[in-house]
Amino acid sequence: MRTVEVSAAPLAALAAELDEVAARRLTAGEERARRLLAGRTVWNVSAAEGGGVGELLRTMLPYARDGGVDARWLVLDGDAEFFRIAARLHAVMHADPGDGGELGPEEMAHYDRVLGANLEEVRESVASGDVVLLHDPATAGLAPGMRRRGARVIWRCHLGTDAPDGILDRAWAFLEPAVAQADRVVLSRPTYRPGFLEADAVRVIAPSVDPLSPKNRRLDPTAVSRLLADAGLVGGAAVAEQGADGADRPAEPADGAMRAGGPVPPGARTVLQVSRWDRLKDMSGVLIAFAEGFDELPEDVHLLLAGAAVAPHDSAAADVLDGCLEIWQGLEPQVRARAHVACLPTGDREHNALLVNALQRHAAVVVQKSLAEGFGLTVTEALWKGRPVVATAVGGIQDQITDGTNGLLVPDPTDLHGVMTCVARLLAEPAFAERLGQAAHDRVRREFLSDRHLLQYVDLVDELL
């Protein structure tokens, strides 16, 4: 395993974002955590440094360290076959067959062999009484070995689906021997609990967003315009981006950021979906819905689909992106002129996060047309920014949006007409859209910021120790 360095981030800065009651609760939780975990290490183990899990750890662990907790982050080592098995498990946990490969005895033997080697690397580091948080299916097989070391083990599964079937059963059959040995299992929704786990072994902890992270911190309109112009996402003169120290620095080159349609014109109202290039995010469905509802939309409305630049080895993402580009090519010329596809540069993690932040703040309406969703942090991010959101009622999106109160939900995730009807309503009723956006921001402040997330883990550790 390799170590990801974690620096402290001031909890006081997070507390300053909260109301007085929440801030006092956070301070009390900090003191309790320091007492509970004195002399212990909290190990977090993930399959990768990037992705949604990496983003959560990158924001949560610095706060824990500032609170006096020895929080550390380890990333698995593995060969290509191990990560193919992990990716297969990840897909199947969403009831998606993925690459269609096996999850049988040979795969189990390889999985256990790689994790055994990882366990050996930290044998002298993890002490009895430490707390180990294992994130997602790739790490679950470490639970028995960590328990033998005397650690208290929590398996945190960030995945799940509301429609369990035979595909999902394959993943649980593979994972059950290890997961059943964890002291506690943390899920994002109660409906994600498999039958072999008793209810008292499971805790439900929703993810959160950090209001001070590059993806979610405040950006004034000038900064939003500058970021989007620099990246070539919205038309306008490109200028240097201002770094965290206040000094100008060149933005990443915009070449290739727009894959279709060119920059969104300045002054256009943008309907945005920003997601991974993942079949279950249904970017192609959003594009088709826009085309089918095009005649009902005002002439100043443009669609922007934005995802991260596709890594050379990620054939699944490349297939989704290529499918969107093929659909775009087949659109009527007047629709193509108002539909845009972008791949956001990933060479600078902070810059990528700032671009997502700027896109969400720039959008007139944010869409999340997922076919399945574990929780849906892109929805949380847009809600935090006070944007009116149209999303499909799948997974954890249902726990974030109350239809007509802080967003609009489409019950059937395949309902293209329903999505565009909701979008058109928000564009036609700006006062209603603004009310939804304000309610959305307020709900995230109450329920989905880092303070609540941290305190729930303090409660969980208190149970175990």
From TrEMBL:
MF-aspect GO terms: glycosyltransferase activity
Outline the segment boundaries, as ranges, of region: Disordered: 242-265
| A Pfam cross-reference name | Glycos_transf_1
Among its keywords, does the record have Ribonucleoprotein?
no
Tell me the ranges covered by the Trehalose synthase N-terminal domain, including all copies: 46-193
What the entry lists under InterPro entries is as follows: Glyco_trans_1 (IPR001296), Trehalose_Metab_GTase (IPR052078), TreT_GT1 (IPR049438)
Keywords in alphabetical order: Carbohydrate metabolism, Glucose metabolism, Glycosyltransferase, Transferase
Q: Where is the Glycosyl transferase family domain?
A: 265-441
Give GO terms for biological process. glucose metabolic process
Instruction: Write down the SUPFAM superfamilies for this protein, in alphabetical order.
Output: UDP-Glycosyltransferase/glycogen phosphorylase (SSF53756)
Q: This protein's superkingdom?
A: Bacteria
Subunit and partners: Homodimer.
Family the UniProt entry places it in: Belongs to the glycosyltransferase group 1 family. Glycosyltransferase 4 subfamily.
Can you name this protein?
Answer: Glycosyltransferase
- Source organism per entry reads Georgenia thermotolerans
The root-end lineage is: Bacteria, Bacillati, Actinomycetota, Actinomycetes, Micrococcales
